[in-house]
Q: What sequence folds into this?
């Protein structure tokens, strides 16, 4: 279930990154990478489960909902923390300056 | 069980490599600032930037997976921190999982990063070629 959540988040973040690719200060690349890497890691986990005979996707575990929520909030929280709070004091690159 | 630890270790390595490469690149740019460079495929993106993206990929993926392991009770805030490490049978199973699933995760992330950086370079290269062609046409 959390694999599907991460996949959905990756697609949404990827689409947002594509449409707002000129707004570098939003750091949407970071958000897309965060969800994308988690999706790929869970994809390997799902494949390993399928090879082990447990099935590719599982919806039986009651904690899966919490993991899905963690995926969403953890990814967005990390994006806010790293892109806006930790980088707040950094000087803006000349490349990021708006074009006249 | 602890598959995310492989990517975490790789993330530490990638971060260290990125810092070292960034230092070397800074020294190089100081020396070669006045030289006129010929355009080559992939020359627009620094290796430190590429490694930064790799480190970000590995760190963020490991972070979200670590949270999943905490929720599932596989990681605890007291020693030995990994519940599977408490008895030898589970520990060997954990090491086997790290060797298969963990390494698989790391390999897939590296492949995704490689494909991503190659496509990025290709887009930049095609943009440069288009601009060059436009310039040549204008001259004619």
A:
């Amino acid at each position: 279930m959390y694999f599907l959540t991460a996949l959905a988040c990756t697609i949404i973040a990827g689409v947002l990154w594509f449409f707002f690719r000129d707004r570098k200060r939003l750091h949407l690349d970071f958000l897309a990478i965060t969800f994308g890497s988690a999706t790929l890691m869970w994809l390997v986990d799902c494949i390993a489960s399928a090879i082990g005979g447990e099935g590719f996707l599982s919806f039986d575990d009651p904690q899966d909902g919490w993991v899905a929520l963690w995926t969403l909030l953890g990814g967005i929280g990390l994006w806010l923390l790293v892109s806006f709070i930790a980088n707040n004091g950094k000087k803006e690159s000349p490349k990021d300056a708006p074009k006249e | 069980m602890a598959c995310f630890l492989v990517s975490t270790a790789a993330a530490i390595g990638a971060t260290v490599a990125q810092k070292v490469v960034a230092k070397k690149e800074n020294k190089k740019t100081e020396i070669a600032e006045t030289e006129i460079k010929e355009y080559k495929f992939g020359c627009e993106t620094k290796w430190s930037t590429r490694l930064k993206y790799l480190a970000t990929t590995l760190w963020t993926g490991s972070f979200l997976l670590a949270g999943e392991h905490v929720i599932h009770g596989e990681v605890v805030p007291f020693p030995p921190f990994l519940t599977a490490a408490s008895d030898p049978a589970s520990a060997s199973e954990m090491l086997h999982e790290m060797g298969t699933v963990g390494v698989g995760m790391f390999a897939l992330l590296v492949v995704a990063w490689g494909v991503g950086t190659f496509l990025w370079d290709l887009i930049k290269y095609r943009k440069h070629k288009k601009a060059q062609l436009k310039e040549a046409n204008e001259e004619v």
In short: The CA atoms of residues 11 and 85 of chain B lie 22 Å apart. The first helix of chain B runs from residue 4 to 31.
